[in-house]
Write a structure and sequence with these properties.
The protein is α/β, with parallel strands linked by helices and 275 residues long. It contains ten helices and eleven strands.
Length: 275
């Protein structure tokens, strides 16, 4: 297994005492596509970022086991984590407008990411950047390489972000809502691209989303989170047959063209789900 998590908790200090944002989470990830779903605030992103130790300074991280390819993340110092971040595990964020450097061209940013991990010349890095842009299906890599982020569309910017994350040839990608800022057509293109790249490179993928239909079609396995804990885990193809009331509530709140409803149901939350 590439990622092993047992009894993970992430807590933050508050005026009322310590608040647990993630509690008792256990999961594993191999060479597969794992979807983590749930509403905003359920702990999806904190769980994924814990693997890379990319948490706020005031966060308290604890676990019985938190390992990346056998490396104890809890005991790893910053130097050891830098050898994992980017090089072995890439993070694709939600909106490229806030992730890309506005004063560097797309090509410069990809070349920089490649050069840091390959210790090669600037010329080799520029050539690698063009090749990576071609790999993410950009038709005119030279033009896009010379463009600044504000000159790119949302879908093009996200392709640049993916190219940057692929530059070190990582073993795992964490995609945190990578398509939520894009329209439906571009979403489908980006997901097909990610699926192709992950399959060809044999990478692990952790996809964070609140889009259940997307995850059910794209992932191999799905973990459903509520209030900081995992309430259900099942194969993606079995998501429609989920049994936990929270997962059922999420599914029933979705509109369907084939079965129109006058009013979408409102989820009735049970305090027992917090236990």
């Amino acid at each position: 297994m590439l990622v092993e998590i047992e009894n993970l908790s992430v807590a933050f200090p508050t005026q009322q005492g310590e608040s647990l944002a993630v509690r008792g989470v256990s999961l594993t990830l191999g060479a597969e596509k794992l979807g983590i779903v749930g509403e905003s605030g359920s702990g999806k992103s904190l769980t994924a970022r814990s693997v890379l130790k990319l948490l706020p300074r005031n966060a308290r991280l604890a676990a019985d086991k938190l390992a990346f390819d056998g490396i104890d993340v809890l005991k790893a110092d910053e130097s050891a984590m830098r050898a994992i971040r980017g090089k072995r595990a890439g993070l694709i964020l939600q909106d490229p407008k806030y992730s890309l450097n506005p004063v560097m061209t797309a090509g410069e940013q990809i070349a920089e990411a490649w050069q840091v991990h390959h210790r090669a010349s600037r010329r080799a890095a520029r050539e690698a950047a063009l090749d990576l842009l071609a790999q993410v299906r950009i038709n005119d890599p030279a033009r896009v390489a010379g463009a600044y982020p504000h000159e790119l569309s949302g879908g093009m910017g996200q392709r640049v972000m993916i190219a940057m994350m692929l530059a070190p040839n990582p073993e795992m990608l964490i995609a945190d809502e990578p398509t939520s800022a894009l329209d439906a057509t571009v979403q489908a293109e980006i997901l097909r691209l990610m699926e192709d790249l992950v399959s060809r490179r044999g990478m692990a993928l952790m996809l964070i989303s609140h889009d259940l239909p997307l995850v059910s079609h794209f992932c191999d396995r799905v973990v459903v989170m509520y209030a900081g804990r995992i309430v259900e885990e099942l194969a993606a193809g079995e998501l429609a047959r989920a049994t936990h009331p929270y997962t059922r509530g999420l599914l029933e709140c979705l509109p369907a063209l084939s079965h129109p409803k006058r009013r979408l149901p409102v989820m009735q939350r049970d305090p027992a789900w917090l236990k």
